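Thread: "does anyone have the structure for this chain?"

Original post by V.I.:
We have the sequence but no experimental structure in hand. Need at least a predicted one for the grant figures.
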Amino acid sequence: MNYDTKHMRVALQAAETGRSFTEWLATDGDCLASAALLLGGSAWHRRAISVRDAIRSGKLPEDVENDLVGLHRLLTLQYTDDINSPEALRFLAVHPDDPRADDARLCAEALERGLDEMHGLAAMGVREVA
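Reply from O.Q.:
Generated one for you, tokens below.
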């Protein structure tokens, strides 16, 4: 048999990253929730807690993808276009040296990596089926 080991390695690496993302959401979900509270307020905090709890109860990141994308957009300041939005006002109140700001940045980066891998695995699955 002739196996395409390059694609197998890529698939295994992506699967490992996906497991790491799920583990991060379960174990560091409180950090994500704190970042959401800092930049979005109580409604975003509840949304992050809901994601954390869903992952801890056995759901996959794909099951809460819309919430993950929304949280990523929040933490990458995509909701601050309107200077009078609650998210913009909360962002303006954060001092750049506040350690919570750095935590929020790290959470945004982790979400980006996880979502990228999640979408990469989905695309790989589509290619396999096609």
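V.I.: this helps a lot. The radius of gyration is 17 Å.
O.Q.: and The first helix runs from residue 5 to 27.
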